Amino acid sequence: MKQISLRIAFVVFVVGIAIGCSRNPITGRNQLSLVSEGDLRTMALTQYKQVLDSAKVDKTGKNAEMVKRVGFKIAAAISEYYKQIGQSSDLDGYSWEFNLIDSKEVNAWCMPGGKVVVYTGLLPITHNETALAIVLGHEITHAVAGHGRERMSQQMVAQQIGTLGDIALGNNPQAVSIFNQVYSPTASIGVLLPNSRKQELEADHYGLIFAAIAGYNPQEAVTFWQRMASLGGNKPPVFLSDHPADEERIQKIKDIMPEALQYYKVKKK
User: Fold this and answer.
1) Is pLDDT above 50 for 21?
2) Nearest to 105 by CA among 243, 231, 249, 244
3) Residue among 113, 133, 93 nearest 263 (CA)
4) Where are the alpha helices (DSSP H) in the chain?
5) How many CB atoms lie within 10 A of CB 257?
6) Torsions phi, psi of 55, nearest 5?
7) With contact defined as beta carbons under 8 Å apart, do 155 and 244 qualify?
8) For residue 13, is it within any domain?
9) pLDDT tens-digit profile of 239-264?
10) How many domains does the chain have?
11) Residue 117: which of 185, 208, 197, 42 has the closest Cα?
């Protein structure tokens, strides 16, 4: 009887996972999605506010204005792209915010719902608005493509949590723990759950397209990543901690450049 119960439980678990798969409108591939976007945005907003409350935020400086200017251009480009593919409703509930935090950390990130932070330590590497647009396009793609939700779902399967159903995400201790591992900007490199290589290359690909639609030359991505690669050292910046090897990334970017340039040329006409 116990074995039968275990088998039934296993079948229910597998069926729940199958139901939890959804097709990503951007990449076209199926993704595991066991948590709701609404729950993720609620938790992300709470954590986002906590980060800003505990950090030194540059609200009025020229660099802060640049981050907002570039960020909103990328956001507008994403809205334009989603409208073109008939998926505008996927961005419902997004409330874009772009903040610059005074920190030596070479990093930037975007949480579900469009909450974006750039650290001042990144700006000496970006050098210009176009390179910053490349970074923001990449990071925002992770959010709109549901990469964090996918990683959370994969960890839920690994821990046999299964679908949450009607249980709010914030009321499930295991789910909250996984959320903190996936999204916590203050977590150490060793704690953060890494993006997969596939996710990283997707973020590079569509991040370039979004930057191009926003009017930024995507070719800047090559020189930016070359500068990032030159930082070297035994301990890479957080921004590089889970990214593909420099040579592989730069080559992949060159491979998709013709497609990105088509969007840029259309924008420049």
Assistant:
1) yes
2) 231
3) 133
4) 2-19, 37-53, 62-84, 123-126, 129-144, 147-158, 173-183, 197-213, 220-231, 246-268
5) 17
6) -120, 165
7) no
8) no
9) 555 555 678 888 999 999 999 999 99
10) 1
11) 185
Measure the CA angle with vertex 266, ends 262 and 269; round to 5°.
Answer: 140
Tell me the residue range of the domain where 40 lies.
Answer: 19-268
- Of 92, 143, 138, 136, nearest to 256 by C-alpha is 138
Contact status, residue 100 vs residue 61, Cβ threshold 8 Å: yes
pLDDT for position 18: 44
H or E element: which one contains 219?
A: none
Residue with tokens 């609620």: 42
Closest CA to 67 of 129, 143, 125: 129
What is d(CA 15, CA 11) in angstroms, rounded to the nearest whole number?
A: 6
pLDDT digits (tens, 9 = 90+) for 106-156: 899 999 899 999 999 999 999 999 999 999 999 999 999 888 888 887 777
User: Can you tell me the mean pLDDT for 1-30?
Assistant: 52
Angstrom distance (rounded) from CA 145 to CA 158: 22
Residue 31 within a domain? yes
pLDDT in tens, 184-217: 665 443 344 456 778 888 999 999 999 999 999 9
Task: Tell me how far the alpha carbon of residue 159 is from its chain's centroid.
Answer: 23
Alpha-helical (H) ranges within 22-146 are: 37-53, 62-84, 123-126, 129-144
Does the annotation mark 139 as catalytic?
A: yes
Residue 9 forms part of a structural domain: no
Burial readout 18-52 (b: 16 or more C-beta within 10 A, e: otherwise): eebeeebebbeeebbbbbebebbbebbbebbeebe
Residue 24 lies in a domain: yes
Q: Which of 80, 97, 129, 139 is catalytic?
A: 139
